[in-house]
Amino acid sequence: MSFFWSLAFLAVVPLVMAYPTGAPLGTCVNLTPKHFNSTNPTVLIPPQAGPSPYALSVSKNMYSPSEELTVTVTSDTGDYFEGFLLQARLADDTLVGTFSDPPTNNTKLLQCTDLGDSVTHTSSARKDAGTSFTWTAPSSDVGNVTFTATFVLQYDEFWVKVTSQEIMASTGAPWVTVNSALIISLLGVVFVATKQ
Ligand SMILES: *[C@@H]1O[C@H](CO)[C@@H](O)[C@H](O)[C@H]1NC(C)=O
Ligand SMILES: *[C@@H]1O[C@H](CO)[C@@H](O)[C@H](O)[C@H]1NC(C)=O
Ligand SMILES: *[C@@H]1O[C@H](CO)[C@@H](O)[C@H](O)[C@H]1NC(C)=O
């Protein structure tokens, strides 16, 4: 094999293998895997057009600053997935919040803008529906957040930009809760004091 052909071979191998160790940074924005058609290697395989068998379920429909939420992958068909890229986005597609402690076996944090603003796979080993991720909200109210993900069932079958429901910033609610807790305990003190 000549030097030229060795180089050409090296260049083609990554295309064929796709990204078994996680989504590359190039997919951070459009969340679309660059998977080439094996019989037609210059043509990209398009995302599935039909409804996604996967969905994102979030532990709460509101977040307070710095609050931890759990995002769980669900599948109404019971399908596993091989690859994925998950982010939390504002309406203008800015990435917000930070994922932490991703399941160690097959997943890792990714830095698209800031470290931990995305999570992806570390291998194409099957991940079961029910896999969940911890996300910490930004330290201030940044507006509605939508979890957005791409799921790869297998090399030529993937769904892009699967979204959760919109998660609203909760405004004022924690103060009301603290306030009423305080009033109740003050009433308790008064009650105890009166009884003595
Ligand atoms: C790959 O290309 C062939 C020929 O154009 C087409 O029939 C096939 O559906 C393509 N496969 C995928 C997964 O897009
Ligand atoms: C980790 O992934 C490998 C490959 O799929 C699997 O064989 C193994 O059982 C997994 N380990 C755990 C602790 O889930
Ligand atoms: C935020 O989300 C809620 C619930 O989906 C929606 O009613 C509201 O219009 C959204 N606000 C903005 C500014 O998009």
UniProtKB/TrEMBL annotation:
The chain crosses the membrane at residues 172-193. CDD domains: Reeler (cd08544). Keywords: Membrane, Signal, Transmembrane, Transmembrane helix. InterPro entries: Ferric-chelate_Red/DefProt, Reeler_dom, Reeler_sf. Residues 1-18 form the signal peptide. GO terms for cellular component: membrane. Residues 13-181 form the Reelin domain. It comes from the Eukaryota. This is Reelin domain-containing protein. It comes from Strongylocentrotus purpuratus. The lineage of its organism: Eukaryota, Metazoa, Echinodermata, Eleutherozoa, Echinozoa.
